[in-house]
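Because discrete structure vocabularies remain unfamiliar, we first show an illustrative case, written as a sequence plus integers encoding its fold.
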Amino acid sequence: MRPLVLTKYHFASLWNWRTSYLGRFIEPVAYLLFLTAGLRSHLSESTDGYGGFALTGLTCLLAFRASTSAMSDVANDRKWGVFAIYTLQGGSARGYLLSIVLYGGAVFLGQFVLLAGCALLVFGADAPSLSRMAVSGAFGLLLMIGWTGVGAAVGGKVQSYATRDFLVTVTSLPVVFTAPLFYPIDGTSGFLRYLASAKPLTYQVAALRDVNAFTASGSVLWAAAGITLALVLLKRADRVSRER
């Protein structure tokens, strides 16, 4: 079973469970329509072009969400024997991870295009230019690859749905709302600032808002580090999880 064939099965899973996966496309648009649109009037003066500020934050949100999606996909594949069947037919951990990254990248690009279109409608003249959106999408894809690697690595070790759901619950909202995705946190103090400084997402969104040779190199290194971590742990992971 080749990586591209396995990728096709991932897309088939997306279609078969489309009502469940629909939330992955609705969530970022909901943040755009109901959160950033409301914050715009309050933050337009403190941020230079809030439309661009918000879109880069949402791009990083999509990249981060790829980690929890990859973790769930890998955990499911291990529980139901997909990973085991793939390796028994001669597939490698590298090929399996490639299928996860290809699938995740396609979903990310679909989410980003939908989000960018909505940003043009919501922010109008305050929306970033198409060239700026393209840059955000390209570098966001690198961040997504790194986060997908992190999620796949964790999914390779998760042994139960309960553990998986717990990790998603305790990381999702705290990570999102303690990073400067929707509002600046430069003037904050106390535990929020300490939490923000401890998360890679804080530095990633800052880099995405100021793309240059240095931040571009950092994005590439992040993608490489995430993929390397996933490969190491997937090679050592049980082909089938212990949950029954």
Summary: The chain has a mean pLDDT of 87. DSSP finds eleven helices and no strands in the chain. The CA atoms of residues 23 and 30 lie 10 Å apart. The first helix runs from residue 3 to 16.
